[in-house]
Amino acid sequence: MAKHLAQIHGTEEDKVNCPFYFKIGCCRHGERCSRIHHKPAFSQTLLIKHLYQHPVRLAELQQAATGQAPAAIDEKQTLEDFFVFYEDLHMEISKFGIVDEIHVVDNVGDHMIGHVYVKMADEEQASDALQGLQNRYYDGRLIQAEFSIVTDFSEARCRDYDESACSRAGYCNFLHVKPVPACLMRSLEEDAEEARRERKYEEDRRERKKRRKESGSGGRERSDRSSKKRSKHSHRSRSRSPSDSDGSY
């Protein structure tokens, strides 16, 4: 029985645990889902909800605000804006450790739109990143970050989308990950490594300066004690009477 439950865990046959939450870290039913969503206490991966301003959602907001049909989406400008967003995000998250993967989803379903998954090198760095993002804002919106159950994105990604063959378009329940050029990722990784070296150098410099200051302070204290001891000894020597020194007057 236990073996069978282990085999079906996180699959459609599992009537207890939500298979979509298990695979992609979110579910279209949200808190109303009839199955359990196991939220991890620790993870290498962070889910930052609705962080990316998807052009489809921006067009919907524009239409709601103006009551007019939005202009056609400028694909070139949208791509440039996405790359700027990706660079900003990578630079900021890299301050907390080594970034293994960043996945920005292109889905437009309400439960997934704008989601960003960030996988760090280990759980400790992910915890530092999560703490560092608390009560922070991006583009005027409060950042909503949490640990994600997803650590293997091969099961979370839509294979049909990666092959440009998904028939459900943006409403698919598997991740449609926006592609990022390899050259851009390499450049950002090199910049992040250089920034880490510079921070390490500055930390080491401050630590050396602190040790020198503490060492100098300790040296002055020892010198002061020695001076006081010599002064006290000299005072006792001057206070002795001649009879004390040679037995006569």
Poorly predicted parts: 1-9
Strand content: 5-15%
Global outline: elongated
Mean pLDDT: 85
What class would the helix/strand composition place it in? alpha+beta
Rg (CA only): 31 Å
Q: Helix share of residues? A: 40-55%
Report the oligomer: single chain
Strand order of the largest sheet: 2-3-1-6
| DSSP summary: helix tally | 8
Overall strand count: 6
Could you spell the SSE succession in H and E letters?
HHEHHEEHEEEHHH
Largest sheet: 4 strands, antiparallel
Distance between the termini: 109 Å
Describe the protein in words.
The chain has 249 residues and is an alpha+beta fold. It contains eight helices and six strands, in the order ααβααββαβββααα. It has helices spanning 2-8, 19-24, 55-66, 75-93, 123-133, 159-162, 182-239, 242-246; strands at 45-49, 99-104, 116-120, 137-138, 141-142, 144-147. The chain has a four-stranded antiparallel beta sheet with strand order 2-3-1-6, with helices on one face. Strands 4-5 form a two-stranded antiparallel ribbon. β4 (137-138) and β5 (141-142) form a beta hairpin. The chain is elongated. The N and C termini lie far apart (109 Å). The model is unreliable at 1-9 (pLDDT under 50).
SSE layout:
Elements: H1 2-8, H2 19-24, E1 45-49, H3 55-66, H4 75-93, E2 99-104, E3 116-120, H5 123-133, E4 137-138, E5 141-142, E6 144-147, H6 159-162, H7 182-239, H8 242-246
Antiparallel strand pairs: 1-3, 1-6, 2-3, 4-5
Which descriptors would you attach to this protein?
disordered N terminus, 49% helix, single chain, two-stranded antiparallel sheet, alpha+beta, 249 residues, elongated
